[in-house]
């Protein structure tokens, strides 16, 4: 039997929103990159396969970050006392300009990918910058690392500073070149169409990107309804469109192909209905939404309406690349939302948030984020023996303690699509 092995430990994952499946001291069988089954005793047909025994460690799915800006890693923690639009102008655009310099880009991107590895983020959906060469380099580097990512060369052809803007023609040409060169180049790293947001993209550009999405069967990501001033600006730019989401929709960029929309803090009812109909992913970015005073996204309401939801660190609007930190922040925001809305929208539980950070976001990649049969095996081995555990805990409680009090030092091994991934070297 080739390419078949087992991992053994205390297995915990969420096959559905808020529901744990727990297997104490059990075996996951992996064949090629897929989970074949979970067993308490190793079946005799597998008696000769390699077993990687992780003892009393927890084995959990890898984390999925559905929204982050790679170049903004250099700005982590900076300038977060502003709202979105002034923050973009003062901190973000000047930093992104630097990625015309490949040596600078390589330095920041190496650090970022190592950090993602360290933090157990096995899959990410990423905004690069408008620079074609640095965006390609980021894809090559992800491929080299063994981590999985969708990487978007950003498009922006209006309302942008002179030092960070493209012509419509160049923007479409560069995007198409990347789609041709990279759509089938790697298994785990793919390009994604990335209009920055409506304020910085002309209708002509968005229409062109919508056509490219169809032509190359490419996924799409952008920002939607993050901030009040941003939404007013979109209304002013597109007075004939019903709302922000409809502007993307009219360009073929709202779920005609699989789509992720970051933030979704201030959606109206028509936008919620449209996202549900088109199965557009809403990416919840609680750290960013708190830091930039954007608001509290009505996540349970979106989930109840049938919209797929995942979590995003949104660095550097978010100040932490850690999905553990993002889960805790999402829990706190959801508790405040519950309190302030007079308890009309229930808080999100830890198991619900763990689902969003694994299988919820993983759905954007396919069968990812769970240990059900035929899922791609992305996993983290967690040694929590160094955490302050002073009384016996159930496996569910051990996971809670790791989420709230653990960090990357507890992550001992990472798997992506069936392969153990070692610390990247660039
Ligand atoms: N909207 C447009 N660009 C950005 C960005 O870089 N970060 C965030 N949080 N929102 C945006
Ligand atoms: Fe963002």
UniProtKB/TrEMBL annotation:
Its EC number is 3.5.4.3. Signal peptide: none annotated. The keyword Metal-binding applies. Binds 1 zinc ion per subunit. InterPro entries: Amidohydro-rel, Guanine_deaminase, Metal-dep_hydrolase_composite, Metal_Hydrolase, Metallo-dep_hydrolases. Its cofactor is Zn(2+). Residues 59-421 form the Amidohydrolase-related domain. SUPFAM superfamilies: Composite domain of metallo-dependent hydrolases (SSF51338), Metallo-dependent hydrolases (SSF51556). GO terms for molecular function: guanine deaminase activity; zinc ion binding. One of its GO terms (cellular component) is cytosol. It catalyses: guanine + H2O + H(+) = xanthine + NH4(+). GO terms for biological process: guanine catabolic process. Catalyzes the hydrolytic deamination of guanine, producing xanthine and ammonia. PANTHER family: GUANINE DEAMINASE (PTHR11271:SF6). Belongs to the metallo-dependent hydrolases superfamily. ATZ/TRZ family. This is Guanine deaminase. It comes from Clostridium pasteurianum BC1.
């Amino acid at each position: 039997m080739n390419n078949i092995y087992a991992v053994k430990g205390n297995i915990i994952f969420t096959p559905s929103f808020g529901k744990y499946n727990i297997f104490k001291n059990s075996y996951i069988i992996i064949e090629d990159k897929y989970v074949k089954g979970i067993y308490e005793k190793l079946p005799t047909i597998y008696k000769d396969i390699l077993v990687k025994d992780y003892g009393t460690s927890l084995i959990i799915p890898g984390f999925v970050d559905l929204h982050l800006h790679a170049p903004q890693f250099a700005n982590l923690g900076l300038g977060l006392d502003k709202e979105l639009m002034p923050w973009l102008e003062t901190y973000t655009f000047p930093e992104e300009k630097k990625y015309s310099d490949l040596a600078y880009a390589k330095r920041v991107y190496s650090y970022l990918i190592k950090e993602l590895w360290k933090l157990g983020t096995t899959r990410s959906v990423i905004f690069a910058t408008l620079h074609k060469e640095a965006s390609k380099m980021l894809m090559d580097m992800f491929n080299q690392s063994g981590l999985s990512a969708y990487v978007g060369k950003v498009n922006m052809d209006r309302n942008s500073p002179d030092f960070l803007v493209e012509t419509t023609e160049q923007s479409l040409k560069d995007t198409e070149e990347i789609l041709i060169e990279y759509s089938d180049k790697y298994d785990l790293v793919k390009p994604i169409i990335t209009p920055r947001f409506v304020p910085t993209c002309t209708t002509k550009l968005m229409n062109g990107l919508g056509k490219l999405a169809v032509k190359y069967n490419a996924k799409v990501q952008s920002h939607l309804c993050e901030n009040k001033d941003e939404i007013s600006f979109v209304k002013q730019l597109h007075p004939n469109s019903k709302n922000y989401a409809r502007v993307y929709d009219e360009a073929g960029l709202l779920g005609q192909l699989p789509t992720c929309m970051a933030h979704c803090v201030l959606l109206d009812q028509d936008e919620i209905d449209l996202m549900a109909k088109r199965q557009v992913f809403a990416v919840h970015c609680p750290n960013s939404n708190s830091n930039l005073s954007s608001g509290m996204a009505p996540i349970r309401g979106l989930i109840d309406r049938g919209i797929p939801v995942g979590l995003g660190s949104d660095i550097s609007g978010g100040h932490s690349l850690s999905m553990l930190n993002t889960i805790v922040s999402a829990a706190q925001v959801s508790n405040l939302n519950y309190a302030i809305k007079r308890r009309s929208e229930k808080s999100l539980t830890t198991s619900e948030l763990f689902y969003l950070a694994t299988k919820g976001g993983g759905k954007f990649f396919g069968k990812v984020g769970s240990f059900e049969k035929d899922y791609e095996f992305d996993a983290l081995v967690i040694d929590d023996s160094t955490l302050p555990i002073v009384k016996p805990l159930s496996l569910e409680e051990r996971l809670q303690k790791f989420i709230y009090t653990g960090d990357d030092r507890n992550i001992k091994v990472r798997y992506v699509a069936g392969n153990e991934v070692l610390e990247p070297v660039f």
